[in-house]
Every structure is written in C-alpha cells, then in structure tokens.
Amino acid sequence: IGSVNSFPQKSTKGSAVLGYVFRHLNLVEIDYFGLRYCDRSHQTYWLDPAKTLAEHKELINTGPPYTLYFGIKFYAEDPCKLKEEITRYQFFLQVKQDVLQGRLPCPINTAAQLGAYIIQSELGDYDPYKHTAGYVSEYRFVPDQKEELEDAIERIHKTLMGQVPAEAEVNYLGVAKSLEMYGVDLHPVYGENKSEYFLGLTPIGVVVYKNKRQVGKYFWPRITKVHFKETQFELRVLGKDCNETSFFFEARNKVTCKHLWKCCVEHHTFFRVSENESNSLSRKVRKFGSIGYKHRYSGKTSLRMTRDPSVQLPRPDQSIERSRSKTYPKRTQQTG
C-alpha cells in the first residue's frame, strides 16, 4: 500500500490512473480497491474513475505534486473467500495497517493471535537459533505496544509451525474479519441536540455509534433511500411492517455531507441485494439516491465479483513478491 506521486495530464480519466496502478500491482479483483486523496483541510476522497483529474477540484487544489494512496474501498465481508492470493495479500496489508494505526481496535488476546500470524508470514517457522530473545519487539502491531503483547505473540508463533505465508495471511484475515470495527468506514455526524454520532458504512449495512457504542444497525436491503440537502443527511429504512422511517443527521458542512452521501450510495450499490430479488423492496431501492444529484457507481458489485464467469480465477502460476515490514531496534531488558 503506497502512494503515486506523479501521473499524466489533467485531462486523464481517473480510470486510466487506476488501471495503471492495478496493472503495476498485478490485481484482477480490482473493484474492492481505490485511490484516496486529501484536500487542504484533510477531508478524504476517492478518485472517481469516470471523471478527469481536472474535475477532481479538491485534488487539483493541493498540487502539484499530487499524492494518491492505494487502499481498500470496499472491504469484502469474508476476505478469506477472495479468489486470488494476491488480492488476499493486499487485504492483509491494509487490515494490518488498520490495526497498527488504531482504526481497527482489538483486545490483547486477539492482537497477540494476529501478531503471531504476521510474524509467521514474515519470518516463517520459529527457529531458536535465529529468533533470539526479543525478536518480536523489532516489529509493530498495535498503537502503544507493550512487552506483554510481544511475549504473547512469541508464545503463539512457536505453535504455528508449517504455515506458509499465504496460509498465515488467510488465518490472519479469518480472525480480523470477526472484529466489530472490521471494514467500517466511519463518518462523524450530529443527532438531536447536537449530540455526536458516527455513521459506519460496512459490508452489511449502516451502523450508528454514540459514545463508541452501537445504537443502531440498518442492513443494505432495508435501506430504501439516502438523501442530503445542505448539511442534512437522511437515511430512509423499510421496517418489518413494510413502513418506511427516516432518520436525520447533521454533517459538519456541505462538503462532508455530500461526501457521506456519495460513499453511502457506492456502498449500497456494491453490497446490494441480488438483481433477481423481486418484491416491493427491490422496486423501492431502484429510486435510491438524492433528487437533483446524480452519482453512479460504475464498477462491479460484490455479487458480480463472486459470480463473474468471464474471468477464470485464480490465474495459474501467480508469483507474489511480498514486502518486508519496517523494523525497529530490539527491546532490551535495560531499556524496557
């Protein structure tokens, strides 16, 4: 996961830049990924494949040079079922970074299990001659890492004999996907009386958090409309009684409100119900979006990604070049 610091003319389409990156990384299951960039006020956006670079005003205002970051745009609900090892490896790199930077919190016992899979993938089987005291401390797994965690990782690493990197990475993703905040794209909003909330866009729907606690969950098949006007964001949900209820939130400003709406439309389209599901819900979902605003998600949906017969995956004889993690001075008894 890196950055692209230079690219062609401003008339170049976003899809051309994405295509270059995907070819460079040898990725075929491309619709899970995208290129992010930040405007001058640190608001994050995704490069739109259908627009030219010049049409990305927030990007053009930052440079030159322009910096784009490759990453997961849509987290697969079960990343272990991705068809190609190279796709799973890119998911492994991203989720590892999510844990390290605190976006994906996990309890210490889970962090130890995840850390052991990272060490197994990177260093292979435990070898007492090569892996001397404190070898785990050369790596970083979580924010504010303690020696207690490193000792636990070492103990678990010794039990993983025989796991090749691809196997260790799948096992890592198998644990990570069950964490509460896996694949959650958080957006800060305000509710009644200016109380602070976060809306989390996930593979299964929209989750509402207040004071870091989940207070609502709305599944994509039940969400019939998202709408925004100025700074007000509306989420319309079909109840079990087939009546619709609207939930309203305030965004910090117009820009963040439109960004939330756009991300919500794309997530809904990517993870939506299958096209042959015929009932009132499907008919309602066709009206999804905001009147007066048009935004189309142009890639494949999650369902099409898993069922697409046009590409035979995995491709034969794929070789993967794995990158080494950054290492740090070994922790010693003297320095602590």
Automatic annotation (TrEMBL):
**Under the GO molecular function aspect, what terms does this record hold?**
cytoskeletal protein binding
Per UniProt, which keywords does this protein have? Cytoplasm, Cytoskeleton
* Biological process terms in GO annotation: actomyosin structure organization
Compartment list = Cytoplasm, Cytoskeleton
**Gene3D superfamilies tied to this protein:** 1.20.80.10, Phosphatidylinositol 3-kinase Catalytic Subunit, Chain A, domain 1, Pleckstrin-homology domain (PH domain)/Phosphotyrosine-binding domain (PTB)
SMART domains in alphabetical order: B41 (SM00295), FA (SM01195), FERM_C (SM01196)
The record's section on InterPro entries has: Band_41_domain, Ez/rad/moesin-like, FA, FERM/acyl-CoA-bd_prot_sf, FERM_2, FERM_central, FERM_CS, FERM_domain
Question: Which Gene Ontology cellular component annotation is one that this UniProt entry carries?
Answer: membrane
Report domain FERM positions.
1-275
Superkingdom, natural source: Eukaryota
Q: Does the keyword Nuclease apply?
A: no
The region called Disordered is annotated at: 299-336
Q: Does the keyword Cytoplasm apply?
A: yes
CDD domains hit by this protein: FERM_B-lobe, FERM_C_NBL4_NBL5
The residues forming a coiled coil are none
Q: What is its main location?
A: cytoplasm
Q: What name does UniProt use for this protein?
A: Erythrocyte membrane protein band 4.1-like 4A
